[in-house]
Specification:
Length: 508
């Protein structure tokens, strides 16, 4: 079912640029784990290949953590939590330390952006504009909460005033295991670690096997920022081994995961035995709903950006276009024209807007969906194929004549593939948009305030955008309805998810 990707010599248009000396140093480092503020060797010799998806070439190696490595990291984080070396520091010291880490990332922004482009395949320009500043923002936003979290004094309902003193304290939940995907590696890393750190938790971060470089580089700055040993630990390795062991480990109090719904369910089951606290940010199949009154010349390129940005490898990708019948053809034409802007290029090309997909596996998955769509009767308006190159490129693709039962409409493809459908009425489109097991995000495009608000109320999704999309801000809660997740990250809810409430009642 997967399309065979032809192996060809690089054509001129797909030549990756030379890496900088800083990136080469990061790639040549000895595979190691970051535990207790030290770079340590694994207990065994297993490594994983680091690949540049723009070329399909091996560019480095990382540790494939063993069970003993995971146990060591958890024991370290446990010790660092239990003796209070981090949680008992004055909040202003925690705040300053987290901000210092943000400063260090900012000071090395160009190197982080390049590593992200090499490892994930995303265009270096977008990594520079989106990933790295976003990563810094998450740290700075949550740093402020370290000094603002607090409890409450509350009077009991059934006792005379003055006979008891009762209060509700907020304490850090403990040791957090944080497992992240490959689509926004550094951004996901800081999004995860920042609330844990601000709350006073210690943590073990496991980046995705395909994209561990920036998490490892981040670890280089942990001691310099001033974190005591054992507070931030970074282990690389496979999800079904190292990740699964972390999730089941009795020394872990909370698991935070971003990734596929399928793995989210496994994690949820594995965490149940010890009733760990779990937050899950999972997949999506987000609708883009375009009403008849819009300016198609503006909205069509925006809809294209909503699906082709990051090669469609975004949980909130606007992967299902619903355009009103009266503008459907013009919308499809407009999105098709906009694909010229998203022509895939190697990630270090400063002109690149879309790079390759992250891996051969992901490319095959996406091509498999396109083939399935064609078999099911969908029509390819543009794309549907892969350019001849050694990297994992897929051309931006638009499918029409799709039916709600097709896998291209129902399943998260996580690639540059848009399915376009028509609608006539608001009720009809709301029903079609909600006809999915996901509920992560949606965008609505109209100048009609009343239609906007009526639709926003009907859509079952954690985030609804009006006349914009993919706006994700550290101050605003983010998460999914239905099978798109459990809990919310970011904002006040994001840090509260790393705390336990303790009610104290003292008789006077
Ligand atoms: P994934 O399997 O969900 O991986 C995400 C993370 O979970 C990785 O760090 C992974 O480790 C780890 N993991 C895998 N199995 C685990 C287990 N049993 N216990 C603990 N951790 C485990 O995602 P993927 O395979 O990379 O991508 C597959 C599909 O997931 C994509 O095509 C897309 O549909 C979806 N996805 C969604 C998001 C999102 O943001 N919602 C992000 C990425 C992918 P490894 O490093 O070994 O994989
Ligand atoms: Mg890679």
């Amino acid at each position: 079912m997967a399309t065979v990707h032809p192996i060809v010599e690089h054509t001129d248009s797909f030549v990756q640029r030379d890496y900088s000396p800083a990136a080469k140093r990061a790639l040549e480092r000895r595979p190691a784990l970051f535990i207790n503020n030290e770079w340590v060797s694994s207990s065994h010799r297993a490594t994983l290949i680091v690949e540049d998806p723009s070329t399909g070439r091996e560019v480095g190696r990382i540790v494939d953590a063993s069970d003993a490595d995971v146990d060591r990291a958890v024991a370290t984080a446990r010790g660092a939590f239990d003796d209070g070396r981090w949680s008992n520091l004055p909040p202003k010291v925690r705040e300053r330390t987290i901000n210092k880490l943000a400063d260090l990332i900012e000071a090395h922004a160009a190197e982080f952006a390049e590593l992200e482009a090499i490892d994930n395949g995303k265009p270096v320009g977008f990594a520079t504009m989106v990933d790295i500043p976003g990563a810094v923002d998450h740290l700075r936003y949550m740093a402020g909460w370290a000094s603002k979290l607090g409890g409450e004094v509350m009077d009991p309902l059934a006792l005379p005033r003055g006979t008891v003193f009762s209060y509700v304290a907020r304490e850090p939940v403990g040791v957090a295991a944080q497992i992240i995907p490959w689509n926004f590696p550094l951004l996901m890393a800081t999004l995860k670690i920042s609330p844990a750190l601000a709350a006073g938790c210690t943590l073990i971060l496991k980046p995705a096997e395909q994209t561990s470089l920036t998490a490892l580089r981040l670890a280089d700055f942990v001691a310099e920022a001033g974190f005591p040993p054992g507070v931030i630990n970074v282990i690389t390795g496979n999800g079904h081994t190292a990740g699964a062991r972390l999730v089941k480990h009795p020394g872990v109090d909370k698991v935070a995961f971003t990734g596929s719904t399928e793995v989210g369910k496994i994690i949820s089951r594995n965490a149940t035995d010890s009733l760990k606290r779990v937050t899950l940010e999972l997949g999506g199949k987000s609708p883009v709903i375009v009403l008849p009154d819009v300016n198609v010349e503006e909205v069509a390129p925006a809809a294209a950006g909503g699906i082709f940005f990051n090669s469609g490898q975004i949980c909130v990708a606007g992967s299902r276009l619903f355009a009103h019948r009266s503008i459907f053809d013009r919308m499809v034409e407009g999105v098709t024209a906009a694909t010229a802007f998203w022509k895939p290029r190697p990630s270090l090309d400063p002109q690149a807007h879309m790079g390759p997909l992250v891996s051969k596996e992901q490319m095959d998955r996406v091509m498999g969906y396109i083939e399935a769509g064609k078999r099911d009767g969908a029509t390819v308006v543009v794309g549907g194929d892969a350019p001849a190159a050694n990297g994992y490129y897929v051309n931006p693709t638009v499918l029409v004549n799709v039916k709600p039962s097709m896998s291209v409409v129902r399943e998260e493809i996580f690639g540059p593939v848009l399915v376009a459908q028509r609608f006539d009425t608001l009720d009809e489109v709301a029903k079609a948009a909600n006809d999915t097991s996901y509920g992560l995000a949606a965008s609505i495009w109209t100048k009609d305030v009343s239609s906007m608000l009526r639709l926003a109320a009907k859509i079952k999704a954690g985030t609804v955008w009006g006349n914009c999309q993919a706006v994700i801000d550290p101050a605003l809660p983010f998460g999914g309805f239905k099978q798109s997740g459990i809990g919310r990250e970011q904002g006040r809810e994001g840090i509260e998810a790393y705390t336990e409430l303790k009610t104290v009642i003292i008789q006077l």
